[in-house]
Design brief:
The complex is a heterodimer. By secondary structure, chain A is of the alpha+beta class. Chain A is built from seven helices and twelve strands. In chain A, the strands form three sheets. Chain A has a five-stranded mixed β-sheet, with helices on one face. Chain B has a single domain, classed as Cytochrome C Oxidase, Chain A. The chains are: A alpha+beta, B mainly alpha.
Chain lengths: 350, 549
């Protein structure tokens, strides 16, 4: 039944954990629509056959609908609409709420390509590799105008905006290759701003990632363009640490929990910060990005609004690297791997 | 030099037998007229011209889409063409089509008035419309814009194409829309004939009244928004462009605050036309009159609170999406109520299958299908897959073309004898209507399927799996265009050489038929007193023709 309707309606294959649920509601809504519009059409035709005009001077009775009939006209469609809405909204909330165990991939859209960066791995252009059966969260931003990340087989789509982050998560169930389309108009190359998601078997993905990390396979998916300031070497955390030093972030923000001109970065990620206007804000990726782009807008209580805007000074990859670096600064994080020098490494306080 | 119409009330007695068409035949007598009927006819000519232009653009786009790769034109030309198609069809055809052309012509007749409340303002509205259209055409000739009719920032504030004249054109046309809306509201409030209470107003007047409310409340917001984009382009003002500290999503909020109600500006007058024509061709009173009339006001009110359903994937909060989703469900109900009542009018009527009735049948089917796919799109989780795909294109063409244009054509055929005193050839009318309804289905049902399939809108090139459905859609569009061409030809012939008709060829008891066809300059020799509801067919005699020779 599912397969028959899916083919009749030209829906693409169901390759994510959302797709089957979305399609089920789709069938319900479209079948009801067909029945309703056909019923209205047939009723009109039936009335025409039954009540066609016999003489040009024919008179007709004056008929008003009783109240119960108007209430029925109102109530029946409203019940259907609300039922669809509640089924759909439940699913929508699920789609909009990334699970906490999702692996992150940074996405940057620009005219007219997609760039993907893994926190602990390589960068790639237009090809996103993800393991099957794992929750993946995309943290997306744009370098120029608005784009939109769309994979029809996953039934997911999210606008990719300049100057801020949006996120989208999915769980790809079937290994395979799926097209990424840009669905927000972005200029002459809009229709060619296509990429590909390669959903790999988990083991294949781990092997690929390990190979990337060891530099055995470099630049398999394309070379960086001249516009990319940050070299795609090392992981994002390391890049973020370098950017923080180069851009002078660390002159005001400490990474060891001490209070300085600006709030410390240690444990900043997902900290509930009280702002100068009294509201509480969750310091997530979006807040961190906003604070770099428009620092005067949401100032943490007790600090002066002295930070300059980094709008136009930091590119998408640099912002992603900084955010990833801030995320890595946890007081409870277990230090693994070789020491990378004492300068900015997080240390445990309290 | 002869006196212009509105100054000539002293001469009204002498001119009583002249129709408005014969009362002054010089070009100046038209260009300088303050007669609502002549202004309505001039608007009709102008919107038909722009409908033709917009239609040619649409066919050119469809021709390109026969091939998945580059074909006929380059990407930039394609992008300019779909922008112009949208701008021309929306701002220069759909928004003014029914209110400014038919509304101007029949609304004063329907309420038993000699003219609108502000005849000079009415003429000014026409010239402002022409000025806006001229600025937009200037922009088209000088390269055109490639932003899409939605002008999303920061693309529109950074693209090097000629966005400025197109923005200014839409801005200026907005004033015409505001002035016409204001004029109609004052007219309905102050110039109703004795005995014409609000609950006796023809349903077309209710539709236009609700539309006018939206026009005067929402259009200023569009004006502000377009102006800010213009200032941003010229002076580097950073309101919407994040590179200058602006917020691109703010533009979308402001734009859709106008443009969602604008959808109702385009469909409510069409619903009014259908209310009139269903009654006239089934010789039946309006079943559920109050429900139809008040649901227009309901749409006008709730329609202001649904704009966020255009932005479910823009990163707005999940809570906002839910609130806008549920409000969109409520606005859909008012349309459903109207549809059921229109079908109810047919019950125990005396139905004549004339050309307008064919369009009524098409309208009902397309409105239900288009409206319910709109509800489907407001169902948040379903919208994610469909957003910005051909499904959305098909949905709103079902409403804008399937419903609004069908209503426009129904009104054009219904009021053609009223406006010009001539009849059109019924046989050709039915042939054209069948072609149009068939062609319309063939054009847009494949586009629903393309949307399901995942083809995004505004795609110059597309992956090859989408080709078969695109070819089907282009074939349908050709049929649709051909049907429209037939109408253009036979109406032109009927206008010049068609047989003269009697004052009320349909036997309609709509109030606008109480006077001659075509009406005299001052509509009525004596202002009629209204003693009954419109479309009361309980008695034999046709409504008295007042002012007949």
């Amino acid at each position: 039944m599912n397969e028959l309707l899916r083919r009749l309606l030209f829906l693409p294959e169901q390759a994510s954990s959302f797709a089957a649920d979305v399609d089920r509601l789709h069938y319900f809504v479209i079948i009801t629509t067909f029945i309703a519009s056909t019923a209205v059409g047939l009723t009109a035709i039936a009335f025409f056959i039954r009540y066609h005009r016999r003489t040009e001077e024919q008179t007709t009775p004056h008929i008003e609908p009783p109240l119960w009939m108007e209430l029925l006209f109102f109530g029946v469609p409203l019940s259907f609409f609300l039922l669809w809405f509640f089924i759909g909204y439940r699913e929508f909330v699920r789609q909009q709420t990334p699970p906490s165990d999702a692996m992150d991939v940074y996405v940057m859209g620009k005219k007219w390509m997609w760039q993907f960066a893994y926190p602990d791995g390589p960068n790639a252009i237009n090809v996103l590799r993800v393991p099957a059966g794992r929750n993946v969260r995309l943290l997306m931003t744009s370098r120029d105008v608005i784009h939109s990340f769309y994979v029809p087989e996953f039934r997911v789509k999210k606008d990719v905006l300049p100057g801020r982050y949006t996120d989208q998560w999915f769980n790809a169930v079937t290994p395979g290759r799926y097209q990424i389309l840009c669905s927000q108009y972005c200029g002459t190359g809009h229709s060619l701003m296509r990429g590909e998601v390669i959903v790999m078997k988990p083991q294949d993905y781990e092997d690929w990632l390990a190979a990337q990390k060891h530099g055995l396979v470099t630049k398999q998916d394309g070379a960086p363009t001249g516009m990319d300031a940050a070299p795609p070497l090392g992981n994002l955390v390391a890049q973020g640490r370098r950017v923080a030093a180069d851009e002078g972030c660390l002159k005001c923000h400490s990474t060891d929990g001490t209070r300085h001109i600006g709030p410390t970065w240690l444990d900043l990620y997902h900290r509930r910060e009280k702002l100068s206007d009294g509201t509480l804000v969750d310091a997530d990726e979006a807040y961190l990005t906003r604070s770099m782009m428009d620092p005067a807008l949401e100032v943490v209580d007790g600090f002066q609004p002295v930070m300059p805007s980094f709008q136009g000074k930091l590119g998408g990859p640099e912002v992603a690297a900084l955010v990833e670096y801030i995320k890595s600064l946890r007081s409870d994080a277990v230090q693994t791997g070789p020491s990378e020098g004492p300068a900015y490494a997080p240390v445990r306080v309290r | 030099m002869r006196l212009s119409e509105s100054d000539s009330s002293a001469l009204a007695g002498a001119q009583r037998h002249l129709s408005y068409l014969e009362d002054g035949t010089t070009v100046m007598s038209w260009l300088n007229t303050r007669d609502h009927k002549r202004i309505g006819v001039m608007f009709l000519a102008a919107v038909l011209f722009f409908f033709f232009i917009g239609g040619v653009f649409a066919l050119a786009l469809r021709m390109k889409l026969l091939q998945p790769g580059p074909f006929l034109m380059d990407a930039l030309s394609y992008n300019r063409l779909f922008t112009l198609h949208g701008v021309v069809m929306i701002f220069l055809f759909l928004i003014p089509a029914i209110p400014s052309a038919f509304g101007n012509f029949v609304l004063p007749l329907m309420i038993g008035a000699r003219d609108v409340a502000f005849p000079r303002l009415n003429l000014a509205s026409f010239y402002i419309y022409l000025a806006g259209a001229a600025i937009a055409i200037f922009g088209m000739v000088h390269g055109g814009a490639d932003t899409g009719w939605t002008f999303y920032t920061p693309y529109s504030s950074t693209t090097p194409t000629q966005v400025l004249p197109i923005l200014l054109g839409a801005f200026v046309v907005g004033f015409s829309s505001i002035l016409t809306g204001l004029n109609f509201i004052v007219t309905v409030h102050t110039l109703r004939a004795p005995g014409l209470s609000w609950m006796r107003l023809p349903l077309f007047v209710w539709g236009i009244y609700a539309t006018s409310i939206i026009q005067i409340l929402a259009t200023p917001v569009l004006g502000i928004t377009l102006l800010i984009v213009a200032v941003e382009r010229v002076a580097g003002f950073g309101m919407f462009d994040p590179a200058r500290g602006g917020d691109p999503v703010l533009f979308q909020h402001m734009f859709w605050f106008y443009s969602h109600p604008a959808v109702y500006i385009m469909i409510l007058p069409g619903m009014g036309v259908i209310s009139e024509t269903v009654c006239a061709y089934s010789r039946k009173n309006a079943f559920g009159y109050k429900a139809i009339a008040l649901s227009s006001l309901g749409i006008a009110f709730v329609g202001f609170f649904t704009w966020g359903h255009h932005m479910f994937v823009s990163g707005q909060s999940t809570f906002n999406a839910g609130a806008f989703g549920i409000l969109s469900m409520i606005v859909g109900i008012f349309t459903a109520v109207k549809v059921f009542n229109w079908v109810g009018i047919l019950y125990r009527g005396a139905i004549a299958f004339r050309t307008p009735f064919a369009y009524i049948c098409g309208f009902l089917y397309f409105l239900v299908f288009g409206g319910m796919t709109g509800v489907a799109l407001a169902t948040t989780s379903l919208d994610i897959h469909w957003h910005d795909t051909y499904f959305v294109i098909a949905h709103f063409h079902f409403i804008m073309v399937g419903a609004s244009m069908m209503a426009f054509l129904a009104g054009l055929h219904y009021w053609f004898p009223k406006m010009f005193g001539k009849t059109y050839p019924e046989g050709w009318g039915l042939v054209a209507a069948s072609l149009i309804i068939l062609g319309f289905n063939a054009t847009f049902i494949p586009q629903f399927l393309l949307g399901n399939f995942g083809m995004p809108r505004r795609y110059y090139q597309y992956p090859e799996q989408f080709q078969a459905l695109n070819v089907a859609s282009t074939a349908g569009a050709t049929l649709l265009g051909f049907g429209l061409l037939i109408i253009l030809i036979y109406l032109f012939i009927a206008l010049r050489w068609g047989p003269r008709c009697e004052a009320n060829p349909w036997g309609s008891k709509g109030f606008e038929w109480m006077t001659d066809s075509p009406p005299t300059t001052h509509n009525f020799d004596e202002i009629p007193t209204i003693t009954q509801m419109p479309h009361d067919y309980r008695t034999h005699e046709a409504p008295g023709v007042i002012g007949a020779a």
